[in-house]
Amino acid sequence: MLCSIVFILFAITFGRSLSQHCEVDETQHECGGYCYGAVKPVLEYLAILQKRVENCEAKQPADTLSKIAKMDEKLKTLGRVLAIQPKSERSSQERKLAQIDEKLAALGRQMELEKKTLMRLQRLVLFEKIGSKYYYIENEITTNWRDALHKCGEIEAHLVSLQSEDEMKVLRRKLDKNKRYWTDLNDLKTEGEFISATTGLKGTFFHWQEPEPNDMENSEDCVEIRTFSDKDWMNDQSCFERIYFICEASWDDPFDMTI
């Protein structure tokens, strides 16, 4: 554009000069060969100047496009840098989160291991192997039948569920005399049909004291063991009565943590 303007100004200047020169001799020569001779060098120079202008105009857009292309490349490079930076930051955050997750998982495994260790210690401290089973005999605290059921559950056990005369004979050697202990038997659902709270099935072993069970005052629905004589007997008792209880382990091996 600058080159075009220069060319136009130059042409106007030379045109005015040429016009004045021709007017002087127009009456004599009618601006024939004389005018042409005077104009020819100018025309030749104008042709050269026109060529320069064309070259200038052809070159200028190329330079401009080159500059634009360079600026565009710089912008693209900057864009890539800006795009990579957040991705790098996200990768760093993801690595940190992964490390935290791994630490939490390791802590969880450690806590689980410690929990199992405490459970083993609890089993060894609370329970005693009597015959082929493990029992916890509560001789200090009395409670009703439902609370006794719950307390046994808290230590991985259930209320004692005797299955034979032999089990009863072996167990009675560890029981205090003149005490009463809850078992898992009850007829809360159907009177006279004693169900094991452990299995949900009908009881298979009973050692009733005569004339039990008698459901005195229609209020005796849970079964206790009495140690009032040389023999231990079963008796139906009010479930709200507060007596001692015996918990039978739900596991066979105190070191087996699979249950």
Structure notes:
- The structure is a single chain.
- The chain has helices at residues 2-29, 33-126, 145-154, 165-172; strands at residues 128-130, 133-143, 157-159, 180-186, 195-196, 222-226, 233-237, 243-249.
- With 259 residues, the chain is an alpha+beta fold.
- The protein has two domains: 2-77; 128-249, Mannose-Binding Protein A, Chain A (Roll), CATH 3.10.100.10.
- Strands 1, 2, 3, 4, 5, 6, 7 and 8 form an eight-stranded mixed beta sheet that branches.
- The longest helix is centred in the first third of the chain and has 94 residues, at 33-126.
- The protein is rod-shaped and about 160 Å long.
- The two termini are 92 Å apart.
Mean pLDDT: 79
Name the beta content range.
15-25%
CATH topology of the largest domain: Mannose-Binding Protein A, Chain A
Listing every helix as H and every strand as E from the N terminus to the C terminus, the arrangement reads: HHEEHEHEEEEE
Query: Which sheet architecture does the biggest sheet show?
Result: 8 strands, mixed
The percentage helix is 40-55%
- Approximate shape: rod-shaped
The number of domains: 2
CATH architecture of the largest domain: Roll
Give the distance, in angstroms, between the N- and C-terminal Cα atoms: 92 Å
- Low-confidence segments, given as residue ranges, are 4-12, 14-32
Return the structural class.
alpha+beta
Number of strands: 8
Query: What Rg, in angstroms, do the CA atoms define?
Result: 56 Å
**CATH C-level category of the largest domain:** Alpha Beta
Q: What's the CATH superfamily of the largest domain, by name?
A: Mannose-Binding Protein A, subunit A
What is the number of helical segments per DSSP (H or I, 4+ residues)? 4
